[in-house]
Amino acid sequence: MPFSDYKVALVTGASAGMGEAIVERLCQEGITVHAVARREEPLLALAARTGCIPHVADVGNLEALTDLCRDLQVDILVNNAGVSRPGSILNADEEAIDTQVDVNLRAVLHLCRLLVPGMVERDRGHVINITSIAAIYNFNGNSIYHATKAGVHALSRQLRVDCYGKRVRITEICPGRVATDIFGNVSGDHEEARRRFIDGFELPEAKDIADCVAFALSAPVAVNIGNIEITPTLQVPGGLSTMRPADYAGAAE
């Protein structure tokens, strides 16, 4: 379905990084974009630069989401907003669990509940869920982030079933490491995070994720691109660790 068949989009997490780049790309394609984010100043700057319609809102706030979507009909829903907290479930606190569930999973479920039925009724629409390779592969730490992104991965598959027989397409994009501020947002130390996770690496940039979104959207209506993994060429997910009991005993001493 060419871009000309889509008129209106809603993008969450729009004030920076991948969300900002996606808003910019969709506006360049002539789409009316409702851009949603918590941070007012960068969101207004984005609106001034691109012409998007800014909505200062926390996607974890169901009342705000409901108000936003009440009279809104969109052809494209991009669920991009996400948060992460370091550490495993063994040392997680209540806030780490609740915040990630609310933003990464609960908000996506509610936005789909509020907006996808209209797509089905109009026989036109595209849902793009930005998850992570953490939705598919397991690696050390960030247990709640893995669990919430895996939930959206499962939802993306299920939405294809729920929308069966209608021209509503579902695409999940699973980025690996991308050169954005997310690592600094997690740790709170942006300078150290950039040195540790970005400087010296060859990484995709936010605009590369926006290009993936545009690729999926611009495919013919008969084509649904269900899942895209985009990682650095020099990054591989997964791995296998096996511990000897003697190693465990030594580590415990």
Q: Could you characterize what this model shows?
A:
The chain is α/β, with parallel strands linked by helices and 253 residues long. The chain has a single domain (3-252), classed as Rossmann fold. It is built from nine helices and seven strands. It has helices spanning 17-28, 40-50, 62-69, 94-122, 143-162, 182-187, 190-197, 206-218, 245-252, and strands spanning 8-12, 32-37, 53-56, 76-79, 125-130, 168-175, 227-230. Strands 3-2-1-4-5-6-7 form a seven-stranded parallel sheet, with helices on both faces. Helix 4 runs parallel beside helix 5. The chain is globular and about 65 Å long.
Element layout with pairings:
Blueprint: E1 8-12, H1 17-28, E2 32-37, H2 40-50, E3 53-56, H3 62-69, E4 76-79, H4 94-122, E5 125-130, H5 143-162, E6 168-175, H6 182-187, H7 190-197, H8 206-218, E7 227-230, H9 245-252
Parallel strand pairs: 1-2, 1-4, 2-3, 4-5, 5-6, 6-7
Helix pairs in contact: 1-8, 3-4, 4-5
